[in-house]
Design brief:
Structural class: alpha/beta
CATH superfamily: Metallo-dependent phosphatases
Strand content: 15-25%
Number of domains: 1
Order of helices and strands: HEHHHEHEHEHEEHEHEEEEEEEHHE
């Protein structure tokens, strides 16, 4: 029994005789007439339900390289791999959201391996429980590494996500699953909100679809995206989030194609938010006609052999969707948090602002300052009133 339950109990009272057990007093006249029963008043009219509102956070690529599973082995003390300490630094931000979306870029290896890094990944399945423990609710899976381990890799990855209770979109085990819209139900104080999650990739790293089954990975095609978003709305989606694996690697400025496609997709009444991956570095976040696009969230977790400080920096983007009088949902609050992946053991993903204020952090103050300065400059370069979730360290 918990403390709250104990405090809610009432102390027992000594028994007292009730009026029903006493002898009635003697009377000499007629009994008095009973009092009339009170007339019931009208039942209270329930007030209108409060407008529905929910918070959504999205993070960058989950891209495991050999140093990360070596770190997981150290954190698991040799008997098992444990990737949750690597991600623990972002858990407060991720777990606080009503809907948290990650991007699992690579297929999973069988339990125990063998594991492979670049160029054809097969990563430890222990990343899935680590994502759950961090607070993720759903993962997008369409990427240029979707076909790295063939059909078996896709099937194995989606089965692991299902078993862990993580929703997913972007890859499929059957043609029927590929055509199915992924609808998520988000609980709010005013009632549930139905959110559609769509995921596409601009390429497959030169690897052909296994068995010619192109439906196994959703390729980025403007007409297809708009068709899927319209289908999601017909099936009850009130908000549709589209994840795009696009852009040019290691380049913080969106490509001409990204800048041309984003406004065309957001012009659709069926598309409410675009979140981007693949560039490996942080790209701007921009508001277009009242809707938002995060062109590139960088990496959430990675350990590239390629040198470059920007490759260690990532972004958590946050959006609050609120119901309007006409029933539509619009983002009325948007923010972000700069992240940093340490490059020496212990490998950890850091919330830059929080780490800069903490004692004994895993990165130097100068490195955190550089990550903050570069990320805020890039993210806010398109204006729009976006602000960090925490004040500058």
């Amino acid at each position: 029994m918990g403390l709250v339950t104990l405090l809610g109990c009432t102390a027992p009272q000594a028994e007292q005789p009730t009026e029903a057990l006493r002898e009635p007093p003697a009377t000499s006249g007629p009994a008095p007439a009973p009092a009339p029963a009170p007339t019931p008043g009208p039942a209270p009219t329930p007030g209108p339900a409060p407008p529905r509102s929910f918070s959504l956070v999205a993070t960058g690529d989950v891209l495991l390289h050999p140093p990360l599973w070596e770190q997981a082995r150290r954190d698991g003390r040799g008997s098992a791999l444990d990737l949750s300490p690597v991600l623990a630094g972002v858990r407060p931000l991720v777990a606080a959201a009503d809907l948290a979306i990650c991007h699992l870029e690579t297929p999973l290896a069988p339990a125990g391996g063998p594991y492979r890094g670049y160029p054809q990944f097969a990563v430890p399945p222990e990343i899935v429980p680590a994502l759950v423990q961090t607070g993720s609710d759903a993962c997008t899976t369409a990427s240029n590494h979707t076909f790295d381990q063939g059909a078996a890799g896709i099937d194995r990855t989606l089965r692991a996500l299902d078993e862990a209770g993580l929703a997913h979109a972007g890859t499929a085990r059957s043609a029927q699953e590929a055509e199915r819209v992924r609808l998520l139900t988000v609980a709010t104080t005013g009632g549930p909100v139905r959110v559609a999650l769509l995921s596409y990739t601009s390429g497959s790293h030169g690897i052909a679809a296994p068995g010619g089954q192109a439906w196994r990975g959703r390729l980025l095609d403007e007409t297809q995206v708009l068709r899927d978003a319209a289908a999601a709305r017909r099936q009850g989606a009130e908000v549709t989030v589209v994840a795009l694996h696009w852009g040019e690697e290691h380049v913080q400025e969106p490509t001409a194609e990204q800048q041309a496609l984003a406004p065309r997709l957001l012009a659709s009444p069926h598309v409410d938010l675009l979140i981007g991956h693949h560039a490996r570095v942080v790209q701007p976040v921009e508001q277009i006609a009242g809707k938002w696009v995060a062109y590139g969230l960088g990496n959430l977790v990675a350990a590239h052999a390629t040198p470059g400080a920007a490759l260690r920096e990532g972004l958590l983007a946050s959006f609050r969707f609120s119901e309007q009088p006409d029933g539509r949902f619009l983002v009325d609050e948007a923010g972000y948090a700069p992240l940093l992946m340490t490059d020496t053991p212990p490998l950890r993903v850091l919330d830059v602002a929080r780490s800069a204020r903490a004692a004994g952090t895993d990165a130097s103050a100068q490195r955190l300052d550089r990550a903050w300065a570069r990320t805020t400059r890039v993210v806010e370069s398109r204006g729009g009133g976006l602000a960090p979730l925490s004040a500058a360290p």
